[in-house]
UniProtKB/TrEMBL annotation:
CDD domains: NAT_SF (cd04301)
InterPro entries, alphabetized: Acyl_CoA_acyltransferase (IPR016181), Trichothecene_AcTrans (IPR052523)
Lineage of origin: Eukaryota, Fungi, Dikarya, Ascomycota, Pezizomycotina
Protein's UniProt name: N-acetyltransferase domain-containing protein
Organism the protein comes from: Ramularia collo-cygni
Gene3D superfamilies in UniProt: 3.40.630.30
């Protein structure tokens, strides 16, 4: 029987210690690309964009919103609701899900760009800029991602580390080709239930696509919802491929979508995405 207290450890003090170690081995405190995009905010403000870039001090709030947004998502349940965790309570599974979102969010605050819209972190997007990833040792150490090797169950580890991550990496490389490391990657975007239908998703996407268009770079994402596939389509993303997580009786489908950069001469679709 696994001890529930593992999931409820207060990691703030430990994270401070890990931050110190990570700095010694070369981890940056902020993403250079985040700073660069923020500098262009005056351009976006003129278009009425209300999204903002978050800082490290806001990782818990951002992660909590993402956890709420993905609470019932099939992909998230794929890692937490495994057969060898059938004895766990829903509360324990929720705590694990939340921890995963905290680690992933913190990693993107270190190496990528975390954008939020709405008064209470209603929608949060985790972007990875061109040429960046969160797979390096200092980022894994500092963000806490390494803890998943023991927090996830044996089956959960196989699903996350041996199936999910390789599938995403290989598929992105296949679809993007030589642009794999020269494109923006929308790793996560979620709107908590109370913030849906207010246009926040468009704001956090437009915040970065404006920069991507200016630089002539594509944007890439995976969607786990057919409804979201339609929404992303209205924002310029096109479906390129379906991939599947297959260690469950009912396979989990992920839709691979790419948004090509718009030229200045391209007209707006006129679609108001809520």
């Amino acid at each position: 029987m696994e001890n529930k207290t593992i999931l409820s450890i207060d990691i703030d003090a430990e994270k401070a210690a890990l931050d110190s170690v990570a700095k010694d081995v070369g981890a940056n405190t902020t993403s250079i690309d985040a700073d660069r995009v923020v500098m262009q905010k005056n351009l976006l403000a003129a278009a009425g964009n209300e999204a903002r870039v978050l800082t490290l001090s806001e990782y818990k709030e951002a992660a909590y919103s993402l956890a709420l947004a993905f609470k019932e998502d099939h992909t998230s349940l794929y890692f937490t609701h495994t057969p060898d965790r059938a004895h766990w309570s829903e509360e324990q599974k929720w705590e694990l899900h939340l921890k995963m979102m905290e680690y992933i969010t913190y990693a993107h605050l270190l190496k990528g760009l975390v954008v939020s819209a709405g008064p209470n972190y209603d929608c949060v997007a985790l972007w990875m800029p061109p040429g960046e990833n969160m797979d390096d040792y200092p980022t894994m150490l500092r963000s806490g991602m390494w803890r998943l090797s023991y927090l996830l169950s044996r089956e959960g580890r196989k699903r996350f580390f041996d199936e999910f991550l390789p599938l995403l990496n290989d598929t992105k490389a296949l679809i993007m080709g030589e642009r794999d490391q020269d494109s923006w990657y929308l790793v996560y975007i979620g709107t908590k239930p109370s913030g849906r239908g207010k246009g926040y998703a468009r704001k956090v996407i437009d915040y970065v696509t404006a920069t991507a268009d200016k630089e002539g770079k594509a944007c890439y994402l995976e969607s786990s919802s057919y409804v979201n596939q339609i929404i992303y389509g209205k924002m310029g993303f096109e479906l390129r491929k379906h991939v599947y997580l297959q260690r469950e009786r009912e396979h989990v489908q992920l839709d691979i979508m790419v948004r090509e950069p718009k030229r200045e001469t391209d007209g707006d679709s006129g679609v108001d995405v809520k």
